[in-house]
Design goal:
Elements lengths: L4 H13 L9 E2 L3 H4 L3 E3 L11 E5 L2 E5 L5 E2 L1 E7 L5 E8 L24 E5 L4 E8 L3 E7 L7 E6 L7 E4 L5 E5 L3 E7 L6 E9 L8 E8 L2 E8 L3 E7 L8 E7 L12 E7 L5 E8 L5 E10 L5 E3 L1 E2 L6 E3 L15 E3 L10 E4 L7 E2 L4 E4 L14 E4 L4 E9 L7 E8 L2 E10 L2 E12 L5 E12 L4 E9 L6 E8 L6 E2 L4 E3 L10 E8 L6 E9 L3
Parallel strand pairs: 1-24
Antiparallel strand pairs: 2-25, 3-4, 4-6, 5-27, 6-7, 8-9, 9-10, 10-11, 12-13, 13-14, 14-15, 16-17, 17-18, 18-19, 20-21, 21-22, 22-23, 26-41, 27-30, 28-29, 29-41, 30-40, 31-36, 31-41, 32-33, 32-40, 33-34, 34-35, 36-37, 37-38, 37-39
């Protein structure tokens, strides 16, 4: 990831608009070869999971992804076949990296958890998460199970940008990192400190930018897997140890992806199945929904270079399913109904910045007590978000608003740097359901519009059903629409369609968001008794 917007703008926009192109790769025939076995379809997850690192431990695959300012951060996904995934937990329980992640005087939008790394160390049966924060330092968290608890192991003074963590066969720990200038660091045996660092490669000017390191040792050779944002993938190989020297080869460039209107599959990582087959789990720029994972098989040349298997000169929309043992159980869907039972939120939920934990609870539904007095949703604490399921999906919430107070605003948003929402607004003792649009940020993520009401209707009683439908097919701005119901059966459209933009610069895609904030004084509350996002 690169925060130099002018440099990235050209390459990313070119990648997102590229309609044709070939990468060096072997071709798989369509038809009989694919029909001979069960197949999977790309994207394997049509939700926003970017900057993927993927590993296998025994018969289980795990992947980590970026979450920026959302908390908890760095979700860990789990799969038994590389195709069906669930969210198992988060490697970073709280973004305790400064007041801006608490929406306390400053904000952390488009900061926080960028491209980071997930690894497993067999010697102590421990998972490691490693990532740099705010270009100042690197944090390492560990857990003996991906569900947690995750605890901070150490803080390292060097910011390992876009890092890849390698646990070598002799149990040594190495980190590959950097942008254009690629370096390798060796950590101390306990993983708490850096003991050596050295630049190992300079990207040729003909290639431009390389970043997004993933670090591997395969058949005695060292590989650093690198992305050219946002339309290429390259690999470095060393036969002389982790510090090189390295030679470079192009893996793909301007490759047609599997999602109409989407970008070139890139970044992500390599993983080997139990039978020895290799796969590449990349992501595809697919805004307004975000960056979604796609899977392709990989073979190796006789001299040890990876080759992505193509279908008709493109990353396939379909491939034979990986040959893996039968799963021990079905994974938990990332969609469906949530009634907020139990004592904790399910791991598919993430807060916009860290929440005020004194102002929310679960059990008999989700209770959101007002935590911020503001007229700006981007400053409001305790906004709870859920990824949108592509290509289109509809979220419905049942909201008990009987404990709202004058000036309170609660509802369901389509949240990004340009947002809109449907919700309940209480003023002067009068309760209305409203649609608000025009919530905007500039490219420095400062609020430029707090929204204006464009439609409303009176409601009585103490509960209402709110619905948002989002079209996140990539390639163009797409509509989001809102409706409400007083009986949970008959829904009435409210307001015009909201245009969800497809610019990449916010990085994270649109999300559904549940919110309740005050504009006058704290003390009000709402209870969400049901959230429904149908499983496709």
């Amino acid at each position: 990831m690169n925060m130099s917007w002018p440099q990235q703008s050209f390459s990313r926009r070119r990648a997102l608009t590229a309609a044709t192109g070939l990468a060096a790769g072997a071709l798989l025939p369509r038809g009989t070869a694919l029909a001979a076995a069960s197949t999977y379809t790309n994207p394997v997850i049509w939700q926003d999971f970017a900057d993927i690192d993927v590993i296998r431990v025994g018969d289980t695959f795990y992947a980590s992804a970026s979450t920026m300012h959302y908390s908890p951060g760095a979700p860990v996904l789990r799969s038994y076949d590389l195709v069906h995934w669930e969210i198992a937990g988060h490697s970073v329980p709280v973004l305790d990296f400064g007041a801006k992640y608490d929406l306390n005087g400053s904000r952390g939008y488009v900061r926080g958890i960028w491209a980071s790394s997930l690894a497993y160390r067999p010697s102590n049966r421990t998972f490691y998460w490693l990532g740099q924060i705010d270009f100042t330092r690197t944090y390492v968290y560990t857990a003996t199970a991906v569900e947690g608890p995750w605890n901070r192991l150490t803080t390292i003074g060097t910011p390992y940008y876009d890092a890849g963590l390698l646990v070598d066969t002799d149990d040594s720990l190495y980190v590959a990192y950097g942008n254009t200038a690629i370096s390798v660091a060796q950590l101390s045996p306990d993983g708490r400190n850096q003991v050596r660092a050295q630049q190992v490669f300079t990207t040729p000017s003909s290639v431009g930018t390389l970043e997004g390191s993933r670090f591997y040792k395969i058949n005695g050779q060292y590989y650093i897997f690198l992305t050219r944002p946002a339309n290429g993938q390259y690999v470095l190989k060393s036969s002389s140890g982790p510090f090189g020297p390295y030679t470079m080869r192009q893996v793909l460039l301007d490759l047609r992806g599997p999602i109409p209107g989407g970008g070139v599959p890139h970044q992500g990582g390599l993983v080997q199945t139990q039978s020895g087959a290799w796969y590449y789990l990349a992501f595809v720029d697919a805004y307004p929904g975000g960056r979604v994972p796609a899977l392709a098989p990989v073979t190796w040349t006789s001299d040890g270079w990876p080759v992505v298997q193509l279908v008709d000169g493109a990353w396939g929309t379909s491939y034979p399913s990986p040959a893996v043992p039968p799963p021990p159980r079905q994974v938990t869907p990332m969609t469906g109904v949530d009634t907020f039972d139990g004592t904790t939120l399910k791991p598919r939920w993430e807060w916009n910045h860290n929440p005020d934990n004194t102002k929310w609870s679960v059990g008999d539904g989700l209770t959101l007590r007002t935590a911020t007095v503001t007229n700006d949703l981007y400053w409001a604490r305790n906004t709870l978000t859920h990824r949108i399921q592509g290509p289109t999906s509809t979220a419905t919430v049942q909201l008990d608003h009987s404990a709202m107070r004058d000036g309170d605003r609660a509802g369901l948003a389509l949240l990004r740097d340009a947002s809109a929402w449907i919700g309940v607004q209480r003023d002067g003792g009068v309760t209305r359901v409203v649609m608000v649009t025009g919530l905007t940020m500039d490219t420095n993520w400062n609020t430029t519009g707090t929204g204006s009401e464009v439609a409303s209707a009176s409601v009585s009683g103490g509960r209402v059903w709110l619905r948002a439908t989002a079209d996140i097919r990539p390639g163009a701005p797409r509509p989001g629409t809102f409706s409400y119901s007083t009986d949970g059966t008959t829904f009435t459209r409210l307001g015009p369609a909201f245009s969800m933009g497809n610019d990449w610069r916010f990085f994270m895609g649109y999300r559904f968001a549940l919110f309740n904030h005050a504009t006058q004084a704290l003390g009000g509350a709402v209870r969400i008794t049901r959230f429904e996002l149908p499983t496709p």
